[in-house]
Amino acid sequence: MSSVRDDFLTANAEFASKFEDGSLPLPPARHALVLACMDARLHVEKVLGIKNGACHCVRNAGGRASDDALRSIVISQRLLGTKEVHIVHHTDCGMLTFTNEQLAARIKADLGVELPPGRDFLPFPDLDQSVRDDIATVRGSPLVAPGTQVYGYVYEVETGRIREVK
Amino acid sequence: MSSVRDDFLTANAEFASKFEDGSLPLPPARHALVLACMDARLHVEKVLGIKNGACHCVRNAGGRASDDALRSIVISQRLLGTKEVHIVHHTDCGMLTFTNEQLAARIKADLGVELPPGRDFLPFPDLDQSVRDDIATVRGSPLVAPGTQVYGYVYEVETGRIREVK
Predict the structure, then answer these.
(1) Which residues of the sequence carry a binding annotation for Zn(2+) (chains A, B) (predicted)?
(2) pLDDT tens-place string over residues A2-48
């Protein structure tokens, strides 16, 4: 049995014993969605000072505006009233360290699975440009509401600071 | 200009002024990945007591094991050494409130976009079953390492408690 599971259950019992937010509504109070990387050093709500119930938080490898991130944004906007998207990538990101070809070769070597050519794991060679690319993807999607405000940031894992990318 | 953006920058300046974790390594210390819903009331690291640098955190609408979540899991396992997946869905989830047909009709009415039939936004009618389905999807993927430990939970937004789903 996983020690991580045991630690989650123990820590959650402590968390629940002091819980006072049981009547928060489903729609995010700040009408905003954050799209950020899954990195273990990026505790999004803490880094950005987000209160419980305030913002949707979508995370994946890289914080990319993938098709699935757009699925989440559509549900967030159409059903739960969010009107802003804030994209957060970060320094020392794993997505800067590989190419699709390298990862496909690794998967074949480790798992024996041969991927079809062109399978895109969404790595990027330039951090600021990756933020700009994802801002453009969100702004350009016909499934995102016209007029949606889209902001981009880089989080510095070395300093704890975010800086805006335009 | 968004007041959310301004609040993020202000809160982050305070966060960064007390930041002491600047030398954490990229690979997650607990070798685990959490896959959870984007819900605004589910601050994953706080609810589960996750320390900075400990676990990858992937989030999307529903906390579903989508193709993009599998992309993140592959990168997490192959490049950054995680060996466990912990899936967290929650009570009062928006994914329990709609069907694909209803959302497609809403998108057409609001945005004028006609989606191809069968576009799946991954809603679910049964919370515990959705966790079991996603456990099975992760376990069954040829891109996930054999022997990966996969756990599932439901978070109760009313009480702050998690309970395991098997």
Answers:
(1) 37, 39, 90, 93
(2) 899 999 999 999 999 999 999 999 999 999 999 999 999 999 999 99
pLDDT digits (tens, 9 = 90+) for B139-151: 999 999 999 999 9
Q: What pLDDT digit, counting tens, does each position of B87-138 carry?
A: 999 999 999 999 999 999 999 999 999 999 899 999 999 999 999 999 999 9
CA dihedral A33, A35, A38, A44 (to 10 degrees): -50
**Residue A1 pLDDT greater than 70, yes or no:** no
- Return the half-sphere exposure (C-beta side, CA atoms, 13 A cut-off) of residue A53: 13
CB contact under 8 Å between A24 and B157, yes or no, is yes
The verdict on residue A134 lying in a domain is yes
Range of the domain at B95: 28-165
Q: Do A94 and B113 touch (CB under 8 A)?
A: no
For residue A11, which residues of chain B lie inside 8 Å, CB to CB?
A: 48-50
Please check whether residue B22 lies inside any domain of the structure. no
Contact across the interface for A4 and B30, Cβ inside 8 Å: yes
Interface test with B, best of A41, A106, A166 (most B CBs within 10 A): A41
The answer to whether B88 contacts chain A (CB < 8 Å) is: no
* Residues across chain B: 166
Number of structural domains, chain A?
1
User: Is residue A21 in a domain?
Assistant: no
User: How far apart, in whole angstroms, are the C-alpha atoms of residue A48 and residue B16?
Assistant: 10
- The CATH number assigned to the domain holding B123 equals 3.40.1050.10
Whose structure tokens read 């490049």?
A: B79
Alpha-carbon distances of B28 from B31, B53, B100, rounded to whole Å: 5, 6, 36
Strand partners, B60: B37
Q: Is the residue at B159 inside a domain?
A: yes
